[in-house]
Amino acid sequence: GCRRSHSHRRLPPGPKGWPVLGSIPHLGSKPHQTLYALSKNHGPLLHLRLGSVHVIVVSTATTAAHFLRTHDANFSNRPSNSGAEHIAYNYRDLVFAPYGPRWRMLRRLCALQLFSAKALEDLRHVRGEEIARLVRLFSRAGKPMDVGANVNTCVTNALSLAVVGRRVFGSDDGAAEFKEMVVELMRLAGVFNVGDFVPALAWLDPQGIVKKMKKLHKRFDGFLNKLIIEHQKMADKSNDLLSVLLKLKEETDEERTKLTDIEIKALLLNLFVAGTETTSIAIEWALVELIRSPGLLGRVQEELDSVVGRDRLVSESDLSGLPLLQAVVKETFRLHPSTPLSLPREAAEDCEVDGFFIPRGATLLVNVWAIGRDPVAWPDEPLAFQPDRFLPGGLHHGVDVKGGDFELIPFGAGRRICAGLSLGLRMVQFMVATLVHAFDWASDDQFDMEEASGLSLRRAVPLVVRPVPRLSREAYDKEFYT
Ligand code: HEM
Furthest-apart CA pair in the chain: how many Å? Predict the structure, then answer.
C-alpha cells in the first residue's frame, strides 16, 4: 500500500548511468526499444535515473496492472515537461492538465460531445462520407499512393467536422503542412529533453528542443486562431464541439473550471494532435501487415465479401460481424502501438509496488510496445503477426484493447486512459475494413518494417502502394455514402 512506512527503501533494479545526465545518453533514438532490451536484463520493473529524475519503467502486463489498476490513483498526474509548457499552452490543455476539476470538466465535455455512444452515432454519416471520398480518390489513382498521408487527411477531416463543424482540408490545401506539424510535435515530444531532467541545464536548451517547440507552437496557434475566426464566419453552426465550447465560455463563471480562449485552443490542439496521427499510423501498419501476408489478406477480404458483398462499401454497422477484421486490428495494436511508451504519469506520493520503493515525483513510463512482445503474456510466437490468437480457440480469445486486459493496452489504462478510445478504435476498424474490402494492393516492395523515432510509432518508410479496385463500379461512384 502507498501509506505504509518503508523499512528499507529499495528502488527497482536498473543500469547505473552517468553522473549528472544519468541514463539519458543511453536511451538512443528509439527509447522503447532500448528500454525493452534493458528490461530483459533487469526485469519487468526497471529504475533509471534521468538527470535528477527517478524514472520507473514497466514492461510486463502484470506490473502494468499493479501501477495502472492497483495504484492508478497515485499515478493520475503527468510529469511536468517542456512540451506541455511550450506547446500545450502551459498545461492549460486536457492531456497535461493536473488531475482535478478542470481535467474532469474537459474530459466530460469531450465524452459527451464526441466519444459517447450517442455522439459517435450522430457523427457516423460524417465518417462514412469522408472515407467514401478517400475510396473514390484511390479508385481513380491508377498509380502508387502514399497511404498514410491520404488516410491522415481523411482522419483529420472526419475529426474536424466533429470538432469545428467543417473539413479543414480540401484536396491539397495545407493538409501536408498540418501533418508535418503533428509529426514534428511527436518527434520533439519523443526526445528526452535534457532540460526536463537536469533543471540546471534547462536554460542552455542543449538540444535546441525548446527553441523548436516555441516556433512550432506559434504555427499551431496561428492554425487554431484561423480555425476559430473561420468558425465565427460559418453560417450553419450546428452542434460541433467548438460551438459548445464558445457558448460555455460565456456561461461558466466558476473560477476553477472557467473556460478561456486559451483553454479552448489548447483542447482543440490536443484533439487534433492526439486524434489524427495515432489513428492514421495504426491504419498504415495494419495495411502493410496484411499486404505482406497475402493469405491473411485473402481471408479478411473473404470475410468482408461474405458480410458486405461487392456492390457497396463497408458500413460501420458491418463491423460487429467481422471477427477476423477486428482480430487484425488488435494484432496491429499489439505489435505497433501508436504511442509505444504511452504518455508518462507521475507518482503523487511515495509508494511501494512489488516490494520496491517508488519515490514521490517519480516518472512512470509504461512500455506498451514491450508488453505486446512479452513472451510470458504472449507465449505463442510473440513476434509473429497472427490475428487468429484472438479468435475462438485462440489463446487470447476475448482479450480487448479497452484497458482491462493489461497485456494489450495501446490506449493506456486507468483514470487517464485515452479519452478518444471509442472514436480512435472505430476509425481504425472502419478504415482498415473499407480499404481492404475496396482494393487489392499492388506492390513489389519488400515492406521495410523499420520504425521512425518519436512519441508516436510512425513507419520509417511510408507505405506507397497502388490501389486496384475490386468491387463493382457502383460501389465507388455513389455520390453519398449510405
Ligand atoms: C488509434 C488511436 C489512438 C491511440 C492508440 C491512442 C493512445 C493514447 C494513449 C496511450 C494515451 C495515454 C493514456 C494513459 O496515460 O494511460 C492517450 C491519451 C489521450 N488520447 Fe488517445 N489515442 C488514440 C486516439 C485518440 C483520439 C481519436 C483522440 C481524440 C480525438 C485522443 C485523445 C486523447 C486524449 C485527450 C488523451 C489524454 C487523456 C488524459 O490525459 O486524460 N486519442 N491516447
Answer: 73
Q: Whose CA is nearest to atom 40 of ligand 1?
A: 95
- List Cα–Cα distances, 382 to 154, 385, 444, in angstroms: 32, 8, 27
CA distance 287 to 328: 10
> In this structure, are residues 291 and 284 in contact, taking their beta carbons and an 8 Å threshold?
no
Question: Closest Cα to atom 34, ligand 1: which residue?
Answer: 419
**Unique residue bearing C-alpha cell 508535418:** 180
For residue 180, pLDDT over 90 is answered with: no
Give 234: exposed, middle or buried? Use CB within 10 Å, 0-12, 13-18, 19+: middle
* Contacts with 109 (C-beta within 8 Å, 6 or more apart), sequence order: 241, 244, 245, 248
Query: How many angstroms is it from 76 CA to the middle of ligand 1?
Result: 14
For ligand 1, atom 26, name the residue with the nearest CA: 275
**Cα Rg for the chain, rounded, in angstroms?**
22
- How is domain 24-477 classified at the architecture level of CATH? Orthogonal Bundle (1.10)
The 10s digit of each residue's pLDDT in 465-477 is: 999 999 999 999 8
Any known ligand binding at 418? yes
Compute, in angstroms, the gap from residue 278 CA to the centroid of ligand 1: 8
Ligand 1 centroid, distance to 282 Cα (angstroms): 13
Nearest atom in ligand 1 to the alpha carbon of residue 342 is: 10
Hey, where are the domains in the chain?
24-477
Tell me: ipTM over 0.85: yes
Global pTM reads: 0.95
Q: What is the mean pLDDT of the chain?
A: 93
Distances (CA, A) of 21 to 48, 113, 394: 11, 44, 46
**271 alpha carbon – ligand 1 mean position (Å):** 9
- CA–centroid distance, 279 to ligand 1, in Å, is 10
Sequence-ordered strand ranges (E) for 230-324: none
Residues with CB under 6 A from ligand 1: 94-95, 107, 159, 270-271, 274-275, 278-279, 282, 338-339, 342-343, 410-414, 416-420, 423-424, 428
Reported in sequence order, the residue ranges of 1-60 that DSSP labels E, i.e. its strands, are: 45-50, 53-58
Q: What is the pLDDT of residue 131?
A: 96
Q: Of all protein residues, whose CA lies closest to atom 9 belonging to ligand 1?
A: 411
Residues facing residue 363 across a β-bridge = 55, 346
